[in-house]
Amino acid sequence: MARKITMEKLIIANWKTYLSIDKAISLSASIDPNSNIIISPSMIHLAFLAEKFPNLNFAAQDISYITDNFGAYTGETPAAILNDIGVKYTIIGHSERRSNMLDNAITVKTKLNLCASKGITPIVCIGESIKDREQKIHLDVIAQQLHEIFHNIYDSDKDIIIAYEPFWAVGTGVLPLSSEIEEVITKVRKTLNFVDNRLFLVYGGSVSAENAYNLVNLDGLDGVLIGKASTDIEQFRSILKAIG
Ligand code: 13P
Q: How far is the CA of 139 from the centre of ligand 1 (A)?
């Protein structure tokens, strides 16, 4: 049985499609089952790793928006299949899927509903482009994204994890200032005040050993979503050590 994740200093490792199966296995084997970590490996590796490491928590990187059930849906990953392999979380609406794979407010909202119907906890990515920030409309853009996704749905009592990932901070080594992240945290919590008790917020985008401690200690932030740095055993260890 995997440890029950708490939403305090939560660490989500998005391995994207960086790793070979051998590297994914050795990295998984190095993770302490008592840590507060959710690993999101490549979709191809997910079932294998979830079976091989039953003491770890795993997330899918995406979920079907066509169906939540078994059936004739070639290439899809329905929530029922995540339930079947014991995976309790999924990322939805990642910026890489929004910009390259046609994810949008409608598909993300549908995926959120399908997660709810099967008890999968969603990790919903939101964030602004660099142009939005330069034009100083980033807070409105974020509020609009949240409104489109959460309006009229999700009135159940399930956990929701929101990942604030500014598009321009993903993979660039450039982060918003702490005050800028705090401003977004306040906006998100205010916009989603109707789900306040079950809402958890993490930051993603160029998280490293240098900035992780500061990030997890920001007021109102419950953890971090780490991409590239979580795929290197030494860098990942340094981040975990920094967070403490
Ligand atoms: P990096 O940490 O590589 O910037 O990626 C962030 C991310 O996209 C996590 O989902």
A: 21
Question: Any idea which residue has 């890489």 for tokens?
Answer: 96
Mind listing the pLDDT tens digit for each residue in 47-105?
A: 999 999 999 999 999 999 999 999 999 999 999 999 999 999 999 999 999 888 889 99
**pTM of the complete model beyond 0.90:** yes
The residue contributing the CA closest to ligand 1 atom 1 is 227
CA 121 to centroid of ligand 1, rounded, Å: 20
Look up residue 230 and give its DSSP letter.
G
Whether 235 contacts 229, CB under 8 Å: yes
DSSP of 89-135, one letter per residue?
A: EEEES-HHHHHHS---HHHHHHHHHHHHHTTPEEEEEE---HHHHHT
